[in-house]
Amino acid sequence: VSVLYWLPDIAMATVVPVAADVAPAVEPTGAAAPTPVANALAVLLPTSYVATTLAPHAVLAHLAMVPVHTFLTKRHLWNVATHAIVEPSLPLTVCNVAVVLAYARTIESDWGTAAFSLYLLFTSAVVGITMLFASPALSAAFNAPYAASAFCGFLPCAIAIAIANWQRSPTAPVPGISALRASHLPLTLVAVAGLIELIAGPGIPEDEDVTAGATPLATWTLPAFVGLVAAWFYLRFLRNRGSGDPSAAMALDGLFPGPLRVLARAAGRVAFPLVRCCGLGEAIAQAEVQAAKAAAARPQSQRDDDLGGGAVDLPGSAPSVADRRRQIALQALAERLQRARQDGARKAAVPTAG
After folding, report:
1. Which residue has the higher pLDDT, 353 or 98?
2. What pLDDT does residue 15 have?
3. 48-70, pLDDT tens digit by residue?
4. Is 250 helix (H, G, I), strand (E, B) or coil?
5. Residue 337 domain-assigned?
6. Is 265 inside a domain boundary?
7. What is the pLDDT of residues 321-331, one digit of tens each?
8. What is the structure's pLDDT at 92?
9. Helices (runs of H) and strands (runs of E) counted in the chain
10. Strand partners of residue 151
11. Does any domain span residue 303?
């Protein structure tokens, strides 16, 4: 966990933080920053689908995340990252390319190529390592050779891009689907993966395929959900040199609808103390304390409005504007807390005389 904590520091040491992280988005006045990763992905993903269709065994055996190959028999450790660029499904490839074209260039331009690449690599690595430990459980649950099956696809990283866009514009509609908001897109992509898997997906791998020397495809839905959680965790706790994003708009339950939101909120309450034990989330905890104090100081009528009382919105209180203002204020609070921690650490490191 300590390695994950310092990863943003290592990767961002040569990257200048951009003002778009803490300020409202504005129209660019000059040339946009280059986006080599987004441009490469837009070409690489369709090419990968064609290559996987023409030579499935070669591509899956060397680039997909096959647990027994990656960590045991062949030590293909690079598969922890490369499994994300192996595209085995045409419908999912179309979805992934659409997400890249719609959002990846903007995010890479705002963050910088190094930060954007680190974000995708983190998501891919967490998905790969999680599938390594999950494959024995899947094998036992379904009596199928998941440890010898291929976990692959860019969908977890596409969901990560969608979550980064949700952080930028939480209430913005999805291009071409005005009824779908940015907050709905990540879970919608997970649902699409599940639907495609039910209709024409890989199904449950068979022992006969492995015995015959083939590399069957594993599930797509579970890696997609793991990618959703991993990407949210990175933005919430690790980005911005470990300070994360303490705004209320980035709470995990914001990615889920209706009844699922209650479950996500309960899961967050259980998991947050574990995160605090790892030295993360202090800014979020302090922000929640400040928000609770501010709520207690408001008149009862305003507190009733927070619970759905139907008050008339004040000028400038549109959801997107309010979310952005809260994010700026909480970001400033997080930076002050970070400086206070650093000052305290320096004072503790100075030896006392005598």
Report:
1. 98
2. 40
3. 999 999 998 889 888 999 888 88
4. helix
5. no
6. no
7. 566 666 777 77
8. 94
9. 16, 2
10. 65
11. no
The confidence band for 337, taking pLDDT boundaries of 50, 70 and 90, is confident
The beta-strand segments (E) located in 35-188 are 173-174, 177-181
Look at the chain and count its residues. Answer: 354
The pLDDT value given to residue 298: 62
Number of domains in the chain: 1
Q: Do residues 235 and 225 touch, judged by C-beta distance below 8 A?
A: no
Cβ–Cβ under 8 Å, residues 49 and 137: no
Neighbouring residues of 49: CB distance < 8 A, sequence distance ≥ 6: 87, 88, 89, 90, 93
Give a yes or no: residue 313 inside a domain: no
Report the predicted TM-score, pTM, of the whole model to 2 decimal places: 0.73
Residue 184 in contact with residue 170, Cβ under 8 Å?
no
What is the percentage of the chain residues whose pLDDT exceeds 90?
34
Tell me the C-alpha to C-alpha distance, in Å, between residue 303 and each of 295, 311, 333: 7, 10, 23
Picking from 238, 156, 163, the residue whose alpha carbon sits closest to that of residue 190 is 156
- Residue among 208, 257, 255 at smallest CA distance from 232: 255
| Residue from 297, 272, 283 nearest 332 by CA | 283
**pLDDT reported for residue 27:** 46
The residue among 183, 181, 178, 137 whose CA lies nearest residue 163 is 183
Domain of residue 80, CATH code = 1.20.1540.10
Range of the domain at 76: 2-24+33-242
